[in-house]
C-alpha cells in the first residue's frame, strides 16, 4: 500500500495507525508564524470505532490502509457468519460477529449493505439508512390514543426494540432509521 | 459542463465590508503620519527562517540574459528595513505575501499582510498602538498582555525558560497528542506544541491577547532583552485561538544579524531544506544604521475574518488557491 504525506491528508483518506486502519475525519494544517508546521488530525479507528486526535509533523508520511467500501446484499446467517453477495459478480463474502457488531439487528434479507473490507476481509457492516421490519410484539394501544404521547416499545423480527406510536400494532411492518434507531413510519404496502 | 468554481469564495457584500476595513486601516496610519510604501514582491533573496518556504521564480530579460532566481517575499521586512536605514521615517505597507506549502482553513499560500515600523518605539509602545488598531477594527475591549513565561506558568505550571528539553518533551508525551515528540530534539518545536494545545485555546477569548518576551532561541529578527538575555523582545497577538500578528523590537546589529542568517542556514542544512544566501543589501543597510524601532506584521485576512465573524479565510478572500 502506498504511503501518504501529510499534504495528501483529507477527510475520507484511510491510513494505518497503531496497526489498525483509520479513516481521517478532519485534517487541520497548523503553521505558527515562526516555527515548525504540523497537522492536527481527527480520525476514526475502523475496527474499534474509536475517534481520536493525533498530531503529525508536516511532511511526515504514513502508511495507507487498503480499505474499500463495497455494496453487497445480505443473504443469511449460519449463526457464526453473516453471508453477503455481490449482485453483479455473485461473489460471496462472510462477515464475523465482530464486523457485524450491533448492526446485526438491522440486517434484512436482500437489503444492500455497505461492507468495509480491509486487505480483503470485512471489518464493518453498515446497514441501509432505512430498513423495514415487522413488529413481532408490542402492547395493544389504548383506545382513543393518538400519536405524540411518547409511544411504547415494540420488538421487531430481528430482535431490535424501538419506540413506536401507540396506534401501531403487532404484525405491522414499520420503517426504521438505522442511524438513530428511531421509528419513521408505517411501511408503504 | 458548467461549474460554479468561477464564483468568488467570499460574498460580494463581504468584499465591500473588507474594502471598508482596508480604508479604515489606511486612515489609521494617515492620522499618525506613517507613510505608505511599496517594496518588491519579487526579490533577490528569500527569508532565512528555516520553517518558511519561499516561492522561487526565474527572471529572464535585459541584463539577465542567462536568467536569475527571484523569490516571492514571505513578508516585506528586509526591504522595509532598508528603507528605514535610508531615512524613510515611520512606514507601513499593505501587500501580498507568499508562503509555499501553506494551505487550509487559516492559511492560503498568498495572503495580505500589514507590516508597519515605528521609529523610537520599543515593543511595548508598538503593542499600545496595535491595541488601538485592533480595538478600532474588531470593536473589542483593551487587549490583555502576558509574558510567554507567565502564560506557561499559568496554564501548565511550567517554566519554559528553565525546564529542560527532556522535561518539556515528557509534558508533550503526557498530553498524548503527538507521538513524534518522542524523537523531537528541538525544544522550541516542543514548546510550540504545548503552546498550541494548552495555551492558545485559553488566551484571548474575550479580547485579543499579546504574548511577549519569547525565548531567545525564537528571536527571529527581534533584539535580545538587555536585562534578561533568556528572552527576545518579540510579541505575538492571539484572538479566539488564532494567531494574528508577530512583532519585534527590531534587531539593529549587522553582525548579530549575519550570525542569525548563519544559524538559520545551519538549521536549514540539518532539516535538509534549501539554504538561503544572506541578504547582503540588508546587512549593508544595517551597517549603515537602523534607527531604534519596532515593527509588526499582521495577517489582514485573518483580522477581517474575525472582524466579520467568519470562520475560514476563504470567506473573506475573493479567490483562494483552490479556485484562483
From TrEMBL, chain A:
**Keyword Endoplasmic reticulum applies:** no
Instruction: Briefly state the modifications made to the protein after translation.
Output: May be beta-lysylated on the epsilon-amino group of Lys-34 by the combined action of EpmA and EpmB, and then hydroxylated on the C5 position of the same residue by EpmC (if this protein is present). Lysylation is critical for the stimulatory effect of EF-P on peptide-bond formation. The lysylation moiety may extend toward the peptidyltransferase center and stabilize the terminal 3-CCA end of the tRNA. Hydroxylation of the C5 position on Lys-34 may allow additional potential stabilizing hydrogen-bond interactions with the P-tRNA.
Domain Elongation factor P C-terminal, first and last residues per copy? 131-186
* Compartments (UniProt record): Cytoplasm
Question: InterPro entries from the entry?
Answer: Elong-fact-P_C, NA-bd_OB-fold, Rib_uL2_dom2, Transl_elong_fac_P/YeiP, Transl_elong_KOW-like, Transl_elong_P/YeiP_cen, Transl_elong_P/YeiP_CS, Transl_elongation_fac_P
Family of the protein in this entry: Belongs to the elongation factor P family.
In its UniProt entry, what is this protein called? Elongation factor P
Q: Which organism is it from?
A: Neptunicella marina
Gene name linked to the record:
efp
From TrEMBL, chain B:
In terms of superkingdom, the source organism counts as: Bacteria
The answer to whether the entry has keyword Ubl conjugation is: no
Q: Where is the Aminoacyl-transfer RNA synthetases class-II family profile domain?
A: 15-321
Do you know which Gene3D superfamilies this protein is assigned to?
Bira Bifunctional Protein, Domain 2
Catalysed reaction per UniProt?
D-beta-lysine + L-lysyl-[protein] + ATP = N(6)-((3R)-3,6-diaminohexanoyl)-L-lysyl-[protein] + AMP + diphosphate + H(+)
InterPro entries in the record: Aa-tRNA-synt_II, aa-tRNA-synth_II, aa-tRNA-synth_II/BPL/LPL, EpmA
Quaternary structure, from the entry: Homodimer.
Identify the GO cellular component terms for this protein: cytosol
Q: Which UniProt keywords apply?
A: ATP-binding, Elongation factor, Ligase, Nucleotide-binding, Protein biosynthesis
Q: Which gene encodes it?
A: epmA
Q: Which top EC class applies here?
A: ligase
Q: Which GO terms describe its biological process?
A: lysyl-tRNA aminoacylation
Please report the name of this protein according to its UniProt entry. Answer: Elongation factor P--(R)-beta-lysine ligase
Q: Which PANTHER family match?
A: ELONGATION FACTOR P--(R)-BETA-LYSINE LIGASE, LYSYL-TRNA SYNTHETASE
EC number(s) on record?
6.3.1.-
Its Gene Ontology molecular function terms? Answer: ATP binding; lysine-tRNA ligase activity; translation elongation factor activity; tRNA binding
Q: Which PROSITE patterns match?
A: AA_TRNA_LIGASE_II
Amino acid at each position: 500500500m502506498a504511503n501518504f504525506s501529510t499534504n495528501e491528508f483529507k477527510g475520507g483518506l484511510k491510513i494505518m495507525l497503531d496497526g489498525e486502519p483509520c479513516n481521517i475525519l478532519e485534517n487541520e494544517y497548523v503553521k505558527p508564524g515562526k516555527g515548525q508546521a504540523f497537522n492536527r488530525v481527527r480520525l476514526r479507528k475502523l475496527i474499534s470505532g474509536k475517534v481520536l486526535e493525533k498530531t503529525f509533523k508536516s511532511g511526515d508520511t504514513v502508511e495507507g490502509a487498503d480499505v474499500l467500501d463495497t455494496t453487497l446484499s445480505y443473504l443469511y446467517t449460519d449463526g457464526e457468519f453473516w453471508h453477503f453477495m455481490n449482485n453483479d459478480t455473485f461473489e460471496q463474502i462472510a462477515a464475523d460477529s465482530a464486523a457485524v457488531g450491533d448492526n446485526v439487528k438491522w440486517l434484512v434479507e436482500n437489503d444492500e449493505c455497505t461492507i468495509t473490507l480491509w486487505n480483503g476481509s470485512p471489518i464493518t457492516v453498515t446497514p441501509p439508512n432505512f430498513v423495514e421490519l415487522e413488529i413481532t410484539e408490542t402492547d395493544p394501544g389504548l383506545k382513543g390514543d393518538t400519536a405524540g404521547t411518547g409511544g411504547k416499545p415494540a420488538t421487531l423480527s430481528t430482535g431490535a426494540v424501538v419506540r413506536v406510536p401507540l396506534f401501531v400494532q403487532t404484525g405491522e411492518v414499520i420503517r426504521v432509521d438505522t442511524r438513530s434507531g428511531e421509528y419513521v413510519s408505517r411501511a408503504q404496502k | 459542463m458548467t461549474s460554479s468554481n468561477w464564483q468568488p469564495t467570499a460574498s460580494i457584500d463581504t468584499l465591500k465590508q473588507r474594502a471598508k476595513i482596508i480604508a479604515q486601516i489606511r486612515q489609521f496610519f494617515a492620522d499618525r503620519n506613517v507613510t505608505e510604501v511599496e517594496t518588491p514582491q519579487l526579490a533577490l533573496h528569500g527569508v532565512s527562517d528555516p520553517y518558511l518556504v519561499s516561492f522561487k521564480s526565474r527572471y529572464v530579460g535585459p541584463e539577465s540574459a542567462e536568467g536569475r532566481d527571484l523569490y516571492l517575499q514571505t513578508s516585506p521586512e528586509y526591504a522595509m528595513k532598508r528603507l528605514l536605514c535610508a531615512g524613510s521615517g515611520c512606514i507601513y505597507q499593505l501587500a501580498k505575501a507568499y508562503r509555499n506549502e501553506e494551505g487550509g482553513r487559516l492559511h492560503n499560500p498568498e495572503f495580505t499582510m500589514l507590516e508597519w515600523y515605528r521609529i523610537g518605539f520599543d515593543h511595548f509602545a508598538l503593542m499600545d498602538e496595535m491595541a488601538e488598531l485592533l480595538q478600532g477594527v474588531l470593536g473589542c475591549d483593551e487587549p490583555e498582555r502576558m509574558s510567554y513565561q507567565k502564560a506557561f506558568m499559568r496554564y501548565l505550571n511550567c517554566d519554559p525558560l528553565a525546564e529542560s528539553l527532556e522535561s518539556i518533551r515528557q509534558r508533550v508525551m503526557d498530553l498524548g497528542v503527538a507521538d513524534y515528540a518522542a524523537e523531537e530534539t528541538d525544544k522550541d518545536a516542543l514548546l510550540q506544541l504545548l503552546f498550541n494545545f494548552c495555551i492558545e485555546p485559553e488566551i484571548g477569548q474575550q479580547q485579543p491577547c499579546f504574548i511577549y518576551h519569547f525565548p531567545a532561541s525564537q528571536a527571529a529578527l527581534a533584539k535580545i532583552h538587555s536585562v534578561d538575555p533568556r528572552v527576545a523582545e518579540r510579541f505575538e497577538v492571539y484572538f479566539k485561538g488564532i494567531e494574528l500578528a508577530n512583532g519585534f523590537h527590531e534587531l539593529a546589529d549587522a553582525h548579530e544579524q549575519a550570525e542569525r542568517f548563519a544559524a538559520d542556514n545551519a538549521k536549514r542544512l540539518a532539516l535538509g531544506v534549501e539554504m538561503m544566501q544572506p541578504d547582503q543589501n540588508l546587512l549593508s543597510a544595517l551597517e549603515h544604521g537602523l534607527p531604534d524601532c519596532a515593527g509588526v506584521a499582521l495577517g489582514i485576512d485573518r483580522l477581517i475574518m474575525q472582524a466579520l465573524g467568519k470562520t475560514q479565510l476563504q470567506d473573506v478572500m475573493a479567490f483562494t488557491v483552490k479556485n484562483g
